[in-house]
Amino acid sequence: MIIRVFKLASLPPPARRPRSIAGVCRRVLRDERADAQGEINVVFLDRRRMRLLNRRYLGHEHDTDVIAFRYAEDPGPVPGEHPFGDIFISTYQAKAQAKELGHTVLTEVMTLAAHGTLHLLGYDDKTAQGRDRMFRKQKLAIRGRRKGGGR
Predict the structure, then answer these.
(1) Which long-range contacts (CB under 8 A, 24 or more apart) does 69-73 make?
(2) Which string of DSSP letters, residue by residue, matches 120-139?
(3) Would you place residue 148 in the very low, low, confident or very high pLDDT band (cuts 50, 70, 90)?
(4) In the predicted model, is pLDDT for residue 82 greater than 70?
(5) Exposed, middle or buried, 28 (CB in 10 Å: 0-12/13-18/19+)?
(6) Phi, psi of 44 (to 5 degrees)
(7) 3-state class of 36 per DSSP?
(8) Tell me: the pLDDT tens digits for 7-65?
(9) CA 77 to CA 88: how far, in whole Å?
């Protein structure tokens, strides 16, 4: 799986860790034993662009922290070189939520990247039970970073 991270400049310098962000996505895929192939793009957007995306594709008129779009299953001409999905993360929401929750922006963006990856794998957080399940899984992925001696 190829994981690319874009537009980190709007994050505080300590949170600009593309390898850590991609790593948490890979941990979710590994933990879920997902046989996903292709490419995931993690894109950071400012508040205005994220709200536009939320309105255009989901019909919502409010801020959101993460939106994930999974692409069709068609592998294309070369296996492993097709898009799997895109994860869009609001830098505005990431900063606000990190402050509210009392942790670093890096921890928050990694949490949101894990959450977006779970959405790409079909997880849903529309119910309390689904949300709790996703939160448990994303916490495990973040903890895996610390246990493994990651940065």
Answers:
(1) 70/119, 70/120, 70/122, 71/38
(2) HTT---SSHHHHHHHHHHHH
(3) very low
(4) no
(5) buried
(6) -95, 130
(7) coil
(8) 999 999 999 999 999 999 999 999 998 877 889 999 999 999 999 999 999 999 999 99
(9) 26
- Nearest to residue 88, comparing CAs of 57, 125, 131? 57
Locus of tokens 């850590």: 20
Provide the CB-side half-sphere exposure for 33 (13 A, CA). 0
| Residues in Cβ contact with 27 at an 8 Å cutoff, skipping those fewer than 6 apart | 114, 141, 144, 145
- Torsion region of 80: left, alpha or beta (phi above 0 gives left; psi -120 to 50 gives alpha): left
Torsion 109-45-89-150 (CA) sign: negative
Q: Say which residues have a Cβ less than 8 Å from residue 83's Cβ, sequence separation at least 6.
A: 38, 39, 41, 71
**Which is it for the CA torsion 64, 32, 70, 104, positive or negative?**
positive
Length of the chain: 151
Q: Where are the beta strands (DSSP E) in 13-80?
A: 39-45, 66-70
Span between the terminal Cα atoms of the chain, in Å: 21
The model carries a pTM of: 0.88
